[in-house]
């Protein structure tokens, strides 16, 4: 029972706290971006973005100009999801499209969309630095054990 008690107190509870924090603040990235743009109108437009919208902006930047088929292949999404989200990004002024028919269109970021992706990348760099400091404390073997444990935990539930 010692291992189970250790698990409950030192693993399960911290994991639940991490998950609950993430669930309550799943818009952390969006909020961080909003804080780092001075324009009120842009802050409002950013407040309308979902996590998927932010992922799409990143992918469009990586692949631009990109087609709906390209986004489907890269993000493993359905055409309807791409259509809905690209239309929203276009309406909010983050993306331009070359053609009205989404199946024939290519997408590119506007200056505003590029600014958002630049700020996203700044956040990503900061998080990478934090994570690098965190994992620096552990050996590759220890990290492998943690990863294996989390994989087993995920598969067991």
UniProtKB/TrEMBL annotation:
Task: Check the record and name the Gene3D superfamilies matching this protein.
Answer: Winged helix-like DNA-binding domain superfamily/Winged helix DNA-binding domain
* SUPFAM superfamilies from the UniProt entry: Winged helix' DNA-binding domain (SSF46785)
Per its UniProt record, what InterPro entries does this chain match? WH-like_DNA-bd_sf, WH_DNA-bd_sf
The name this protein carries in UniProt is: HTH marR-type domain-containing protein
Q: Which organism is it from?
A: Secundilactobacillus collinoides (Lactobacillus collinoides)
């Amino acid at each position: 029972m010692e291992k189970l008690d250790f698990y409950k107190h030192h693993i399960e509870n911290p994991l639940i706290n991490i998950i609950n924090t993430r669930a309550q603040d799943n818009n952390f990235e969006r909020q961080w971006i909003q804080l780092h743009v001075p324009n009120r109108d842009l802050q409002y437009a950013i407040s309308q973005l979902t996590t998927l919208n932010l992922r799409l902006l990143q992918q469009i930047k990586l692949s631009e100009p990109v087609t709906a088929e390209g986004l489907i292949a890269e993000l493993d999404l359905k055409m309807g999801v791409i259509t809905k989200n690209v239309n929203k990004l276009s309406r909010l002024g983050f993306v331009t499209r070359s053609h009205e028919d989404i199946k024939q269109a290519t997408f590119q970021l506007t200056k505003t969309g590029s600014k958002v992706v630049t700020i996203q990348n700044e956040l990503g760099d900061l998080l990478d630095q934090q994570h690098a400091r965190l994992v620096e404390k552990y050996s590759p073997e220890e990290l492998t054990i943690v990863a294996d444990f989390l994989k087993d935990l995920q598969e067991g539930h």
